[in-house]
Structure formats: structure tokens, C-alpha cells
From TrEMBL:
Transmembrane segments: none annotated. This is Helix-turn-helix domain-containing protein. Keywords: Activator, DNA-binding, Transcription, Transcription regulation. The lineage of its organism: Bacteria, Bacillati, Bacillota, Bacilli, Bacillales. CDD domains: CAP_ED. Residues 141-211 form the HTH crp-type domain. It comes from the Bacteria. It holds the Pfam family cNMP_binding.
Length: 223
């Protein structure tokens, strides 16, 4: 992959200097790989050039909770770079993900530009706002709203990834992310099927009525 061409396509070519790009590398993560893990150490900024990641955290009860799904272009490690702290949330590849890996030391040496600093501040502020909003929405929303929002958000990743994430093997993880039990998740999926919103089998889920599913989500999207 030509990094400059990819950044131009994404509209981010102005953010990084030539010296920064020369000292960076392309990294490909397979589906399910962790780009970073909660409370771990990260020493590089990852610019997601292709693919999609899911970002989740631990609740106060010690359970996983899904925060959002993000498609390219997005930055991973920006909060940690700006704050100097350990990793805030776990980030996992959904399908193959291609990233530009830029060591923090390279950014500090070659990329202290106004354009990058402003972009970084906007991105960090937006993420913190989304996180605070998502936390309150998660507490107040119903499982039907969370599941509908997850299905709508996940559908943007394409059918193959959608089916992989909603497979029988993955549904226990999905249930934990959405703050429910495996049985309750399956009951809600069946209720959606009975209403004609989705078609459900043991191996896959197919969305039949996207507009009504969006209405059921009631704004609870993971994007």
C-alpha cells in the first residue's frame, strides 16, 4: 500500500510530515487481533487506513461493554499520546485492519504542526464526549435499543463481517458487550425475527427491515 495515496484518499494527507511518514510503518492486523488493551502500555499512534475496529471497556462490575465501532480513517492511541497515560480502552480488529504505525517519539520529533495538534485536540474531545454520552445512554437504554443499534452499526461493515460477528460462537461476547445474558440476547433476536425485522437461523442473522430497526434503536448507535 502507498501510504501517501491512502492518506490523500482519506483526506488526511496534510496531517503528517514527510519525515514522519518515512519513520513510520504499515501494520496489518487480522480479525480479532488487539491493537491495544485496557490499562496496557502503547508507544505508537495507529492511523487506521483500511478496515474497522470495535472499542470496548470494562464496566464498574468488571464486565465488557461495547462503546463504538469505528471505520477508517480513525486514530488509535491519540488520547494516550496526548495524556501520557496507559491505554484507556481495548481496541480490536473487526476483519482485516491496515494501519500506519507512528511511534510517539517520531510524532514528538517531526510532527509538532498546528494542523496535527488541532486535529488531535478535536479528535480527543470528540471521543471523550462520545464516551460520556454512550455511558449515560447505555444505562438508560433497553436491550432492544442496544441490540437494534448494534445490528444497524455492524451492518455498515459488510455482510461477511456482519455474519462473523453475529455467528453463534460470537453471540456470548455480544451479549456481554451489550450488558445482558446469552439467553436474553437470543430471546430478543427471536422477537425481532417474529416482528419481521430480521431473519434468524442458528448460523446467521439477516436484516429484513433496516428502517424499522433504526427506529427501534432510538438513536442508540455504536458509531
Amino acid at each position: 500500500m502507498k501510504v501517501e495515496a491512502a492518506l490523500h484518499r482519506l483526506g488526511w494527507h496534510h496531517l503528517f510530515s514527510g519525515q514522519t511518514l518515512a519513520a513510520s510503518s504499515i501494520v496489518t492486523f487480522p480479525s480479532g487481533a488487539m491493537l491495544c488493551a485496557n490499562d496496557g502500555v502503547i508507544d505508537s499512534l495507529f492511523v487506521v487506513l483500511e478496515g474497522r475496529v470495535k472499542i470496548y471497556t470494562l464496566s464498574e462490575e468488571g464486565k465488557l461493554r461495547l462503546l463504538r465501532l469505528k471505520a477508517a480513517p480513525t486514530l488509535i492511541g491519540d488520547i494516550e499520546y496526548a495524556s501520557g497515560r496507559h491505554v484507556l480502552h481495548t481496541v480490536e480488529a473487526v476483519g482485516t485492519v491496515v494501519c500506519l504505525r507512528i511511534p510517539f517519539e517520531v510524532l514528538k520529533t517531526y510532527n509538532r504542526t498546528i494542523e496535527f495538534t488541532e486535529h488531535l485536540l478535536r479528535g480527543v474531545s470528540e471521543k471523550l464526549f462520545i464516551e460520556a454520552n454512550a455511558s449515560s445512554n447505555h444505562l438508560m437504554s433497553t436491550l432492544e435499543e442496544r441490540l437494534a443499534g448494534y445490528l444497524v452499526s455492524l451492518s455498515e461493515a459488510g455482510n461477511d463481517l456482519f455474519q462473523s460477528e453475529m455467528s453463534q460462537l460470537k453471540r456470548k461476547e455480544v451479549a456481554e458487550w451489550l450488558g445482558t445474558s446469552y439467553r436474553h440476547l437470543n430471546r430478543t433476536l427471536q422477537a425481532f425475527a417474529d416482528e419481521g425485522l430480521v431473519e434468524r437461523t442458528r448460523k446467521q442473522v439477516k436484516i429484513l427491515d433496516m428502517e424499522r430497526l433504526k427506529q427501534r434503536a432510538n438513536g442508540m448507535l455504536y458509531e
